[in-house]
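FORM 12-B: Structure-to-Sequence Request
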């Protein structure tokens, strides 16, 4: 065995040398010249260089032993000893590489450790003094904020429920659906007692208009369904008011004698005949069917939907073939004065009663919407604590940090002692560095330094928030 030299292949030797140089250079980079622990860092770097050198030597021996064992001329009785030596050198290589790694971590943590002269054991103890009392006061104040908020929210909910009950009660008392249905059914009933001559005349003539619009709008009539009868009667009233648009809209008093519309210029849409297709009342037509545009549909359907909701009849198309029947029915419920048609004021009075009822209904619905909107806004505002939200995190941090203070102070004291001992012992040649203890201590001291300023900040914040 002694007759053969242990040689490392040139490529492997160059690789190990490059790795060693890179590791050494990286460990020295970034060292803080002003750090109190610079001598300790330099000593650790020396120990790391030594560990890497030992690892390199072990690597060279490993390569040599492997070369010997691969030699087929090697005596079989020499192989067991060579294997033992190979295993021993592999263990030595791993040990020194691991040691160098632990030392490198210790160096890195020491280099990261700020040189803060303000953070000492006594200054830390002073910072934590009174923190527990402030945390207790902050917790009590926050509980009071939560209690007040909960009470406010409950009062808000109770008031909202009360207002909503009152609004729903007003809605039930109004009973717009029942009132409108009864009013419209009586309007076409000639047998109503105590009716005036004008009301009796309307009751006789209005069904003809209703029949015309039912056919023109293709609405199936159902004499046994009071809701259907009331709805088609309301459509007839709306059609009548649009036929006499100049009177019902109040425009007649503003027109000159020449501008008065003639009978031939009147229709169910309230626009001049011959201009219906060009108006904004019709979207398109198919032969004699007029397809109502959104504006025309709204004029007929909106009031019905307000009263009967999903039960309301809707109109979409008008059959032009029933124009003549509709016009004749409207003329039957009108008078001629100075060669112009004058609508029956009793019909307009009836329509105005329904308008007043719808206005009242709309007012109640808007009141309910306003109540809901106001409630949501106040509730959202109640859930926003504003400046008081800082009290929550401040007292919570104070509680946690106060609870951890003994452990942190004990760790800080032990860590500073350990680093001081390692710094003193590092000048000795036989020093075996406690690399893991050094890196852990550096981390604990760095944490304590950060906590020192955080504790002082939270104490200042709590005093401000708890001030009268």
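FORM 12-B RESPONSE
SEQUENCE OUT:
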């Amino acid at each position: 065995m002694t007759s053969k030299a242990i040689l490392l292949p040139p490529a492997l030797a160059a690789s190990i040398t490059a790795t060693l140089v890179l590791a050494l250079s990286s460990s020295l980079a970034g060292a803080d010249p002003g750090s109190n622990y610079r001598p300790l860092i330099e000593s650790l770097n020396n120990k790391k260089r030594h560990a890497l050198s030992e690892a390199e030597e072990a690597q060279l021996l490993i390569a040599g032993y492997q070369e010997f064992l691969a030699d087929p001329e090697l005596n079989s009785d020499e192989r067991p000893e060579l294997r033992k030596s190979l295993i021993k050198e592999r263990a030595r290589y791993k040990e020194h590489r691991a040691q160098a790694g632990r030392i490198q971590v210790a160096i890195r943590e020491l280099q990261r450790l700020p040189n803060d002269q303000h953070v000492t054991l006594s200054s830390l103890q002073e910072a934590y003094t009174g923190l527990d009392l402030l945390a207790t006061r902050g917790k009590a104040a926050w509980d009071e904020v939560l209690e007040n908020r909960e009470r406010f929210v409950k009062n808000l909910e109770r008031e909202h429920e009360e207002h909503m009950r009152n609004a729903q009660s007003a809605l039930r008392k109004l009973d717009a659906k029942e009132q409108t249905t009864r009013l419209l059914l009586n309007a076409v009933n000639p047998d109503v007692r105590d009716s005036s001559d004008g009301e009796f005349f309307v009751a006789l003539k209005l069904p003809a208009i209703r029949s015309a619009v039912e056919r023109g709008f293709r609405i199936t009539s159902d004499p046994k369904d009071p809701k259907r009868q009331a709805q088609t009667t309301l459509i007839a009233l709306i059609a009548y008011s649009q036929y006499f648009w100049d009177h019902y809209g109040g425009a007649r008093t503003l027109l000159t004698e020449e501008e008065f519309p003639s009978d031939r210029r009147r229709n169910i849409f309230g626009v001049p005949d011959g201009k219906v297709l060009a108006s904004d009342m019709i979207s398109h037509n198919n032969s004699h069917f007029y397809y109502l545009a959104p504006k025309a549909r709204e004029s007929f359907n909106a009031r019905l939907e307000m009263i009967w909701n999903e039960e309301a009849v809707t109109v979409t198309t008008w059959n032009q073939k029933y124009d003549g029947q509709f016009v004749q029915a409207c003329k039957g419920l009108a008078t001629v004065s100075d060669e112009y048609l004058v609508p029956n004021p009793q019909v307009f009075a009836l329509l105005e009663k329904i308008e007043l009822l719808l206005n009242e209904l709309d007012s109640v619905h808007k009141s309910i919407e306003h109540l809901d909107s106001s409630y949501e806004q106040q509730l959202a505002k109640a859930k926003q604590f504003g400046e008081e939200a800082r009290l929550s995190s401040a007292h919570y941090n104070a509680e946690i940090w106060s609870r951890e203070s003994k452990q942190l102070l004990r760790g800080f004291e032990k860590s500073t002692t350990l680093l001081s001992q390692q710094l003193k012992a590092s000048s000795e040649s036989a020093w075996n560095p406690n690399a893991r203890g050094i890196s852990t201590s550096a981390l604990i001291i760095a944490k304590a330094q950060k906590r020192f300023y955080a504790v002082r900040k939270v104490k200042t914040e709590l005093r401000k928030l708890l001030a009268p």
